[in-house]
Amino acid sequence: MLSVHGASRVLSRPLHNTCLNYIRRFASTSREEFDVVIVGGGPVGLALATALGSKPELNKSLKIALVEAGDLSKVRDWSPSPAAFSNRVVSLTNASQTFLQNIDSWDHIEQERTTPIEEMQVWDGVSDARITFSTSELGLPTPAEGMARLTETLNLQRSLLHHLITTPSVEVIDQSRVQSISPDEISGAWPSVMLDTGRVLKARLLVGADGPNSPVRAFAKIPSYGWSYDTQAIVCTMEHPPKGPFLGPNTTAYQRFLPTGPIAFLPISATASSLVWSTKPSLATALKACEPPVLSRMINAAFRLPEVSIRYLNNRILEAHEAGTPITDEEIRSEILWREQSHSIDTTSAYSSATVATSASSGIPPLDAEMVPPVVTSIQSGSIASFPLRYNHTESYVGEGQGSRTVLVGDAAHTVHPLAGQGLNLGLGDVECLARCIHQTVLRGGDIGSYTALLPYTQERYVENHKIMSACDKLHKLYRVSSGPIVQLRSVGLEILNELDSIKAALMMTAGSVSRTDRPLSYSSDTRAAMFGAAAKGFEGMRMAGQVLEVVKGGLVGFVGNALRNAPTTRQR
Amino acid sequence: MLQTHLLRSLSTVNANEIAHFTRLSAEWWNERGEFSFLHKMNPVRMQFIREKLVETTYDELPEEAVNAKKVRILEGLDVLDIGCGGGLLSESLARLGAKTTGIDAAESNIAIAQHHASLDSRLPRNLTYRHTPAESLLQEPKRYDVVCSMEVLEHVDNPVMFLKTCAELLKPSGHLFLSTISRTPLSYFLTIFMAEKVLRKVADGTHTYSKFINPSELLDFFHEFRSPSTPQDAETQARPWISRLYDGQPTRKEAELRGMIYNPLSASWILAPRGAWGATECNYLFWVRKPAALGGEASEH
Ligand SMILES: Cc1cc2nc3c(=O)[nH]c(=O)nc-3n(C[C@H](O)[C@H](O)[C@H](O)COP(=O)(O)OP(=O)(O)OC[C@H]3O[C@@H](n4cnc5c(N)ncnc54)[C@H](O)[C@@H]3O)c2cc1C
């Protein structure tokens, strides 16, 4: 290495400058340079590109590329028939919707294909303790808009893409897979992204919106920890008769917590709803191998029969599958019928599904009709699929050292159990925050790839995501424990209500339609901190309540209602 | 092919030199290293500069003519950064459109700044660095719309001379931005006792307590100060830069003091609100505006 003296001696400035300028010029001719390279054209990557492109004042300052391995023209030209629905449906909270409105993307959503959730019914499959929350309870300014809106992921992606096509500062590069990423030899310089088409993109800021197996995360060597849940989520589009004139519209979401995992019914139109059924992988495989009518019957039973009977039916399905003689529709029908009779479930009750008429009934519905979802009559062909479920959270959202100038958003940074429908909402929260940090840095002349620019993003999002993720994780695990005090608590439904309340708090936080954009960082995190404070006070009440459990077992329902600050309606069947 | 060949032969000539400054520059620009506090402070300085410039344009132009969201708010302005160090502030000024000149008395700083700027091909070309003391620039005819000097005042031997130089380098109606440290027990405790002696975040001997300048001293200086009688400044001598102090405070249009407060929880600096009690006890920002040229003012009325 050169001595200091030597350094100043050879510091003949003209030559020095020429040389550096030469490198600069040479570098920029061989590679394309972008201020932001977003890897991943999933909903999160598309939303980030749109958010950055939607600010006219950023247009001249930022040159953006979005890289996607798949063919985005399929998303752009997606035009399903009005009655057919994709099996990937997400619930978008009001905060997410407001954000999409602010980036001018909500208008492109085909509204007729979305449904507001006006009520949620969640209950424990073992004790049947139930929590109901409705829009009116959450005190929303526009209750008819629902607490969230169920939307096909494709509907959202298509809308974002349509907006992006008209955004000149964003170049969409699809059918191009990222093959490798390399850091520059000079530290602090920009990473290069090599595509399988031969193009090389240099990025001031490299964003990983590339999903759970994120190649960007691997490049930046950002450690990530988590676990597989040993659970598969079966998804499909279910068809059912419209609710009769005496019942409300199909705007109630249902979720039952079974020991094998939660099963959720998410309305998408008057006669179609989406299923997310988390269960053991072996059972998922067996169910998917059955005739679709058998799956319909099993779905109906899973929302209605007592837990012992569901366990029995699951075993029947598994045994038949292993024996290579899949159960027939008639066999499962008679099994369910027999189970209903032995539990003395009246055939006129909403809890009976084996004998129910498949057309819409115009008569007076049974009294308990609102307690369970409509009876599923068929499943849209080709809509059955399943996904393994994982919990994963990276140690940081920002790369360092060789991986500097990288940042992660969405599922690349965190994957969460879908039981609270939060996965994509967390991702959109990331996008909103990151876009805000980038905007602020540009206004202050900063380098958007610098650690200093990205630090507020990690600080704001990490804790917030973690709180919601761990609440979902705990809720799932509660049902994997088969003995101990938790089971005792669970048997009276207290623990689940406690945990559900944290989900409810999360929902409330994102349900308000107040815009999060354009608010200074400190303000928005303070408000949210205050809301967490309020939610925590609710928990405090619950914890104390736990100590006096023995005393109040008798009058539990009323007591739980008081303990929760925003008293949910609790019902026992 | 020819290009690759050329590059190789050029880079061998200067390989050692480049390697040396690459390393120095990497140290200076390491956001988590010795200079981390400067990196964290920079957005706050820029926030202040931006806010103040937007505010003055609102005062001067009809409201609908001001675009507060505009990125390149310094477009077309000649801006001088005295004591530019590795170029942290200069690069930010250049990105906002300023024709920026960064100067530093240390030759190695200039090399670091030049090297770092060369890494970002999207930095505007109107960013130049020069190894020169500020006083030498007085010999040249060029004057500036904005002069910035961040964390320099507390290091100079003759602050009065230094302030006069800054003042003289400005065009009429030009903006002077300074940031420095107060001479208070708090500032001694935080910047010398804690940062240098205890935490050793900053090299021992970086600061000399007696050189720290209090906000009131800066205000008093510009309350007295009139532009010197040079040909360029003949028109701006009518009044001192701060014409009046109310309860020791200047009017918003003439000068402003804002504290910078470090929030250890978020490890970041925040710009204290105007007039926040005690906020200027340690690190603070100062803005003062050179009086307008008489001719200009007369024609307006
Ligand atoms: C069963 C299930 C139900 C869910 N329900 C909900 C719900 O109700 N509400 C909710 O909010 N969330 C829900 N989620 C979560 C939600 O689907 C995800 O959070 C969301 O899809 C994440 O979006 P993303 O853009 O981050 O990642 P992805 O959608 O995974 O997109 C990543 C993109 O990156 C691309 N890519 C990857 N590698 C490369 C490469 N090397 N080169 C180029 N491109 C590459 C991929 O092609 C892909 O398009 C659910 C998830 C599951 C599994």
UniProtKB/TrEMBL annotation, chain A:
- Which cofactor is recorded for it? FAD
- Enzyme Commission designation: 1.14.15.45, 1.14.15.46
Q: Where is the FAD-binding domain?
A: 155-284, 397-461
Q: List the Gene Ontology MF annotations in alphabetical order.
A: 2-methoxy-6-polyprenolphenol 4-hydroxylase activity; 4-hydroxy-3-all-trans-polyprenylbenzoate oxygenase activity; FAD binding; oxidoreductase activity, acting on paired donors, with incorporation or reduction of molecular oxygen, reduced flavin or flavoprotein as one donor, and incorporation of one atom of oxygen
What is this entry's stated membrane topology? Peripheral membrane protein
Q: What family, per the record?
A: Belongs to the UbiH/COQ6 family.
- UniProt protein name: Ubiquinone biosynthesis monooxygenase COQ6, mitochondrial
> Can you name the source organism?
Collybiopsis confluens
Q: Which gene encodes it?
A: COQ6
From TrEMBL, chain B:
Q: Which SUPFAM superfamilies match?
A: S-adenosyl-L-methionine-dependent methyltransferases
An example of a Pfam family matching this protein is Methyltransf_23
Q: Which residues bind S-adenosyl-L-methionine?
A: 45, 83, 104, 150
Pathway it works in: Cofactor biosynthesis; ubiquinone biosynthesis
Task: List the CDD domains hit by this protein, alphabetically.
Answer: AdoMet_MTases (cd02440)
- Keywords noted in UniProt: Magnesium, Membrane, Metal-binding, Methyltransferase, Mitochondrion, Mitochondrion inner membrane, S-adenosyl-L-methionine, Transferase, Ubiquinone biosynthesis
Q: Which GO terms describe its biological process?
A: methylation
Q: Where would you find this protein in the cell? A: Mitochondrion inner membrane
The catalysed reaction is: a 3-demethylubiquinol + S-adenosyl-L-methionine = a ubiquinol + S-adenosyl-L-homocysteine + H(+); a 3,4-dihydroxy-5-(all-trans-polyprenyl)benzoate + S-adenosyl-L-methionine = a 4-hydroxy-3-methoxy-5-(all-trans-polyprenyl)benzoate + S-adenosyl-L-homocysteine + H(+); a 3-demethylubiquinone + S-adenosyl-L-methionine = a ubiquinone + S-adenosyl-L-homocysteine
Q: What is its EC number?
A: 2.1.1.64, 2.1.1.-, 2.1.1.114
- Name what cofactor the protein needs: Mg(2+)
Task: Please provide, in alphabetical order, the Gene Ontology terms of the cellular component aspect for this entry.
Answer: extrinsic component of mitochondrial inner membrane
Residues holding Mg(2+): 151, 154-155
The UniProt function text for this chain reads:
O-methyltransferase required for two non-consecutive steps during ubiquinone biosynthesis. Catalyzes the 2 O-methylation of 3,4-dihydroxy-5-(all-trans-polyprenyl)benzoic acid into 4-hydroxy-3-methoxy-5-(all-trans-polyprenyl)benzoic acid. Also catalyzes the last step of ubiquinone biosynthesis by mediating methylation of 3-demethylubiquinone into ubiquinone. Also able to mediate the methylation of 3-demethylubiquinol into ubiquinol.
Assembly and interactions? Answer: Component of a multi-subunit COQ enzyme complex, composed of at least COQ3, COQ4, COQ5, COQ6, COQ7 and COQ9.
What family name appears in the similarity comment?
Belongs to the class I-like SAM-binding methyltransferase superfamily. UbiG/COQ3 family.
The protein in question is named: Ubiquinone biosynthesis O-methyltransferase, mitochondrial
Query: What species is this protein from?
Result: Collybiopsis confluens
